[in-house]
Fold:
Amino acid sequence: MSANQLSGTTAIVTGASKGFGRAAVAALSGAGAAVIGVARDPARLANAQAELGSRFTPVAADAADPVVAGQLIDQYSPSVIVLAAGAAPLSRPLHQHTWSSFSRNWEVDVQQAFHWTREALLRPLAPGSVVIAFSSGAAIAGSPLSGGYAGAKATVRFITSYGAAESERAGLGIRFLSVLPQLTPATDLGAAAVAAYAAREGMDVADFLATRGPVLTPEQAGDAVLELAAGQTLSPGAYLLTAAGLKELQ
Ligand SMILES: NC(=O)c1ccc[n+]([C@@H]2O[C@H](COP(=O)([O-])OP(=O)(O)OC[C@H]3O[C@@H](n4cnc5c(N)ncnc54)[C@H](OP(=O)(O)O)[C@@H]3O)[C@@H](O)[C@H]2O)c1
Structure:
């Protein structure tokens, strides 16, 4: 699929109301795709619809609900799925977590990746379709103030690679890719984490960010989603995303 070929296609984006998901909606919609956007808060979704008009269909639902994944894939037969919904982890060191707070990203992010990957393979999506899941740079580096976040995001990457292998084995022609963004203060989820890590280092946020290089913006994440969705030449796999762009991980 080239960027031009996205015109007239249907995409489903979870986490569509803000942050990276909202930026992915804008990028895909800008390329001419009809976008179904999933998030739980209908008011924030309504803002996106007010901006994008009839090319955006809001669906207020839990992206980690297996019924939601199955119903939306059956109803819309998307050729692009972007899994950008994710729970904001409680920013505390390990011993200040309960099991419930520690496992939150497993219940949301990992369940989402599992259900949507499964449904994409079972239906199956049409050949040439693509599923892009947001993992995190924390899947490589760890995330000691976020409970089970880093492990959950590593599992999202694994699930995506398992999906790619099953697609290949069955000759389905569905691409499964994961994207691992660097931590950025430019979204609500990222801003909370940056504030926590800065405080732990005894630094203010500006000084902390100055140690980390250029900040990744949601617009860059939206462009990266577009590149991955359109990039026939990009192999299925995992991609690190920084302000410098996408870099394939081995
Ligand atoms: N920002 C970073 O620094 C960073 C770095 C690496 C990876 N990531 C990953 O990138 C993805 C997007 O993060 P973000 O920073 O854009 O987060 P964000 O600004 O907090 O936005 C999260 C979006 O997901 C939706 N959402 C949360 N739980 C949901 C659920 N169960 N069902 C449906 N929608 C749900 C939210 O809307 P509702 O609350 O209304 O549902 C919102 O639209 C996440 O997977 C995150 O882990 C972020």
